[in-house]
Amino acid sequence: MAGIRFASVTKRFGDVIAVDDLDLDIGDGELLVLLGPSGCGKSTALRLIAGLETPDEGLVLIGGDVVNDVAAKDRDVAMVFQSYALYPHMTVRRNIGFPLKPLGVDRHERDRRAEEAAAQLGLGDLLDRKPGQLSGGQQQRVALARAIVRDPRAFLMDEPLSNLDAKLRADTRAELVELQRRLRTTLVFVTHDQVEAMTMADRIAIMVDGALQQVGTPDEIYERPANVFVARFIGSPPMNTWAARIDRDGEATLTVDGAAVPIAEPGRLAGLGDQVVVGARPEDTSLAPAGIPATAAVVESLGHERLVTCDLGDGERSVVRVDAHLPYPQPGEAVHLALDPASIALFDPATGGRVP
Ligand code: ATP
What we know:
- The protein is α+β, with helices and mostly antiparallel strands.
- It has helices at about 40-50, 90-95, 105-120, 135-150, 165-185, 195-200, 220-225, 230-235; strands spanning about 5-15, 15-25, 30-35, 55-60, 65, 75-80, 155-160, 185-190, 205-210, 210-215, 240-245, 255, 260, 275-280, 285-300, 305-310, 315-325, 335-340, 345, 355.
- The protein has a six-stranded mixed sheet, sandwiched between helices. Strands 13-12-11-14-19-20 form a six-stranded antiparallel sheet. Strands 2-1-4-5 form a four-stranded antiparallel sheet, covered by helices on one side.
- Bound molecules: adenosine-5'-triphosphate.
- The site of adenosine-5'-triphosphate has 12 residues, from strand 2 and helix 1.
């Protein structure tokens, strides 16, 4: 087992900065999820750990050792990809035991360890089948078993669940977390799916355009997003944001689209200019007799609650969570939005950064 560290790592492909001056410490035994939109550099970061890419600047460390010049095969990390990459002509047993072959482990011991890894993933009955005789979910579990069989220092997984249907994906996600807790092996997991990140991670590292935006536990990131991008990327639906004015006639007050927006601690507005971006999660936004003017556009029932998407005057939209037993508007109806004064997030309109 080993911790992993990026120290000021930059990786370029021609003019593209895929990873931009990344500093990140991944703890020994931690499950860290690298999250971000397509093209943000998360796969490149993972490949830098695996040794499939070399940094242009900075150091990559595994277990405290700089590995910049260590070949991929000598890094003792196991990578699992979105495509299962199983050998079609080999049985499940042989596929799982395959990584032990170059290590000089004899066939009998390879089979024994493959069976042990297969048992950990509930594949015990499928050992003699070929990959073509397995479902997608079973094939992905064989790929996972092949990663754990040689007891590597770390697992690196690049969108390993994306080929599975929604139900299987949720089940496999839970199994994977349980397996990682049991093995206590460092796991770096790449995904663009924020729900996957929120449900699996000890900590999430969010990247945009090669740059790290925030690292924290799922709760920290949900409750205190570091900037507007993170606020609008995390959460399903994500945080609502509005351009607001700060008026300083006496005590500072907030208005959005002419409507007063009460804030629990007006002192937070001190020292800001006259514009700010206000954020509130859909559960902290409600339909009220007075407030930000909007028009109900879409009402979606999720059984226990409804999501009411509202059009604002400026072409933006906000989403309100409404308990299923409460009244809700019809599409086209004029509504007003109120924000929980204690839960309001403030962001700098120029930089997008959070204002404490
Ligand atoms: P995705 O989720 O789509 O896989 P990602 O966040 O994993 O995206 P990367 O694959 O790390 O992103 O790519 C980061 C940037 O670097 C992208 O702009 C991509 O086009 C570029 N890039 C990655 N690999 C190469 C390469 N081998 N040659 C040139 N450009 C590359």
